Amino acid sequence: MEPDTAEKSEQNETSSVSRLLSELRRENGWTLAELSRRTGVSISALSKIENGQSQPAYSVLTRLAGGLGLDFADLLEGRSTRPRFARAARTINRRGEGKRLENDMGVYRLLSTELADKALTPMVIDIPPRADNSEPARSAHSGEEFVYVLAGDVIFEMAPYAPVILAEGDTVYFDAASEHGFYSAGPGNARILSICYSGSGEAPDHLTV
C-alpha cells in the first residue's frame, strides 16, 4: 500500500468511528461520561476520538465495540450492514487485502471482516523491532490466541515465562488473558498470522490501552 493511500485509509477509519460515536451519543442522549462508563475508555480519549484528534489503538477499538454491543468490523466501518456468520457462510481475502489498522504494536490487516459475529478474529501483523531502551507494547485480552510466524524472527514475551525467539514457520498457542507482547528480533519488521478466539462471536476484548 502506498503511503498516501495508507494515510487516507487511517483517516477514513478514524472518521467512521468518530461519526458513529457522535451518532450513538445523540441517539441515546449519552454524555461522554456515560459512554466512558459503558466502554471503559477515558472521557479525554473519547473526546479526542470524536473530534478526530486521535487514532484509536486496537485495544481501545475493541473496548468500544464490546461496550456498545457492536461487532468490531461494524465499528470500523461506521455500522455497515454485513451478513452474519451462519451455515455455509464464506469469505475470501486476496493477497494484500484486509482492513488496515496501525497502533503501537504494529500494522494490522484484519481479515474476513465481511462477516459479523465470528468466533475467530484472524489478522496479519507486521511487527517492528523494539526501540532502544523502550518497553515492548503488551496486551491482555479474553480468550485464546494462535500465532504463526510468516517472515522474520519474533521475540515473544508472556508472563511468567522467559522471552523466547520464534523463527519463520514456528507457532505459539497461548492463554491471551496473560499479558503478552511481540517484537521483531531483527533490524526490520517481522510478520505473523494471529488468530484470536473469544468464544463469543465478538472480537477479543483487549484490556490494555
From TrEMBL:
The record's annotation in CDD domains points to:
cupin_XRE_C, HTH_XRE
Keyword set, alphabetical order? DNA-binding
Q: What is the lineage of its organism?
A: Bacteria, Pseudomonadati, Pseudomonadota, Alphaproteobacteria, Hyphomicrobiales
Report the GO terms under cellular component: cytosol
- The organism named in the record is Martelella lutilitoris
MF terms in GO:
DNA binding; DNA-binding transcription factor activity
State the protein's name: Helix-turn-helix domain-containing protein
Q: Does the keyword DNA-binding apply?
A: yes
Q: Name one Pfam family in it.
A: HTH_3
- Residues covered by the HTH cro/C1-type domain: 21-75
SUPFAM superfamilies per UniProt = lambda repressor-like DNA-binding domains (SSF47413), RmlC-like cupins (SSF51182)
